[in-house]
Amino acid sequence: MRAPKTYLRAALIAGVLATVAVPATVAVPATMAVADAETVPAKAAANMSPLVNVAASLPKVSASQLLKIAESQVGVSENSSGGGTKFHEWYMNSPRAKETVARDGGSVAAYANAPWCDMFVSWVGEQAGLRPVFGWDAYTVQHAKWFKDNHRWGNTAEPGAVVFFNWNGGKDIYGVEHVGLVIKDNGDGTIKTVEGNTGNGKVEIRTRPMSQVAGFGYPVYTA
After folding, report:
1. Contact 203, 194 (CB under 8 A)
2. Residues 146-165: pLDDT tens digits?
3. Pairwise CA distance, residues 222 & 55, whole Å
4. Are 119 and 196 contacting, i.e. CB atoms less than 8 angstroms apart?
5. CB atoms closer than 10 angstroms to residue 33
6. What string of H, E and C letters represents the secondary structure of 53-103?
7. Domain 29-217, CATH among 3.30.420.40, 3.90.1720.10, 2.40.128.710, 3.40.50.720
8. I want to staple 192 with a disulfide (CB 3.0 to 4.6 A). Which of 20, 89, 170, 183 is the partner?
9. Strand partners, 192
C-alpha cells in the first residue's frame, strides 16, 4: 500500500541515466528485457538500463528461485497494530529506512506499524541477493518510479515481475496503492501473485485482474 501521509511528501528524484552496453557475461531473459515498452523498442531497452551492468556482479538467481523465497513466507501475519513482522524489523534496521525518512519525512520508528507490502517485496529481493537490481522502499510510488527511471517498466505480466496496483485501474505511477510479485499470467485477464499486507494483514497468494495493474517493474534476473 501507499505509505502513511507522513511519508507522502516524497521529493522527485532528478538525474539522467546513461546508456550502457550489455555485458557478454549477463543473460537477460527477453521477456524481462522490455522496459518502458510504450516508447522504447525491446532490443534497445535491454541496452538502456544501467541495472544490466550492475547485475554482472550479483549471484546467479532466477525468477523462480526468488519466487520460492516469497512463497515460503505465505502465512506470515502482522500484529494487532498492523506491524510487527520480520519485514518491518528488517526495513527499520536497514540504511534504507533513514534514507526514505530523509526523503519523505517522519521517523524510522513510525515504520513499525506502517503498511508493509513494499517492505515484503524489498525483503524478498534482499534475501535473493538481488537488491541492487530489485530496488528497496517502503513507498510503492517511489519504488515504481525507480523501475521506470531505470528503464525497467512495462505492461506485460511475467513471472518474477514486481506488480504495482491501482485499485481504480489508473496507470499513473503516482496513483500506485499496492505492490506484489507476479507468479504467473493466468491467460484469462488475471494474474497469480504473492503479496504482503493483503487479505487480513498476511502474506498470501492472490488472483488479481489485470485491470487493476498500473504497471510492472522488471528486476534483472541473473540466471
Report:
1. yes
2. 999 999 999 999 999 999 99
3. 7
4. yes
5. 22
6. HHHCCCCCCCHHHHHHHHHCCCCCECCCCCCCCHHHHHHHCCHHHHHHHHH
7. 3.90.1720.10
8. 183
9. 184, 207
